[in-house]
Task: structure prediction
Amino acid sequence: MSGRISIVLSQGQSRHPEKRKLEEELVAELMGRPEFDLSLIPNLYDIHWEDSAFLTLEGISGPMVVLSWHYPRAAFWTLAQLGICGRFGKSRLHEEEEGDQQDQDVGDAQDAAAAELPASEAVPAPSGKRPQTANRLIYCIDLRVSSDVQAYLEELERIRQEATTRLYPLQVISPSEDTSGSLEAEMEPKKEAPLRRRWYPVIDYSRCTHCMECIDFCLFGVYGVDAMERILVEQPDNCRKGCPACSRVCPENAIIFPQHKSPAIAGGAVGEAGLKIDLSQLFGAPTAQEIAARERDEQLMLAGRQPVGLSQKERDAAAAERNELDEMLDELDAMEL
Ligand code: SF4
Ligand code: SF4
Result:
């Protein structure tokens, strides 16, 4: 016997008609089903603790499914950074693309690693906030994987049976008051001002080793450490809009910018063995470390500060990166490809 499950639909930042249509169709379907307890929130990446959407998320104690326009890894760790924690639930709804089996395998391995880690134990609590400790599953589904509402409904039903049977055997189901509202009212859930678009790093704590490279690299005071010497994003809004620099220097690919156009930075599956290989680097283009330093300098200048270039430590890291690429080239030569 399975119970009711919370569904959170995080609206996209853009009012693109196709996106809006999918959101509306999903809301219309989900509102009429008492087994799903639907909450509609603005883009979860833009939410602050003082926003009513945060209270909505905080009020959900059982398993939940989050439908958003982000990669599942990005959505899951964005929630964790807000203190909304659980175990990573694995959705079966993926973008089916020819030749992406390897990415899928890597993604599966990452999901498994995240699932092993109760996020509430891994995420340092920002000052004054305590991560929820619920041993519940949080499933994150990327709304870009399909435009077929039926595909989502089938997956939501599968998840409902899986999540509520396994951890929450039976809940008393009472019809949601929300289901009596009109679709228009549901799609405009907030009378407050629309949320300002934000830009800040999200840390995937299933990968982070707390090496402190990012706090050394960023010169805008975004990162901090907690009492246990664990890295945390302390001043997210100090981050410079559009700057993804520290994600390039993180040796574990643990830093995500969910709104970045590159899947590798936006929380897509991390490449095999965690190597950030860009084939252009094989032909003398800048290393990731050098690109990151250049991006940081651009932001320093935009902020009216002096560029700093590469520190000695960063120069060494760039040299090591180049050596690594040279060795790869030698190996390719040896293979006579
Ligand atoms: S650089 Fe990456 S692995 Fe190191 S502390 Fe920062 S996020 Fe964690
Ligand atoms: S993206 Fe740039 S400004 Fe933002 S945290 Fe990283 S280095 Fe700092």
Notes: The longest helix spans residues 312-334. Residues 5-187 form one domain.
